[in-house]
Amino acid sequence: MNSGSHANPSRGGFTLIEMSLVIFILIMLLSFGFGLSNQITSWKLGRAGSEILRTVYTAQRTYLADHPTTPVNALTPAMLIPYLPNGAVAMPTCTSLTNTQLFVHVNVSPPVLTVTPGGLAGVTYDPSGRANDSLWDVGE
What we know:
Layout: H1 16-66, H2 77-80, E1 94-95, E2 101-105, E3 112-114
Antiparallel strand pairs: 1-2, 2-3
């Protein structure tokens, strides 16, 4: 009477192909995760810039409602700071996708982001280059 089980001695561990396949799948998952992380970072920067522009646009509209004879091209950051929420003491700034500081240009409507403080006319920051894609766009 033979009641013992016989183990298969040729199947003792993982093969090289199995280990290579597992390592390949892990590398693919990690690279996908890093790529997704970069996209999320870009989205967060875009969202922050958009929120700043909307906040300044609201302050700009409120100031102009209180001072209807003031032209938009005469606005300065100092005029709008009291109209910013949460007791702001300075005009907000944000970071571009290339990690440079961006400033809000307030004497145009809607306000735009520029790479220089105070902004230069015609030099705005829009990473997409299209005015109708809603990226960094604000206003109407």
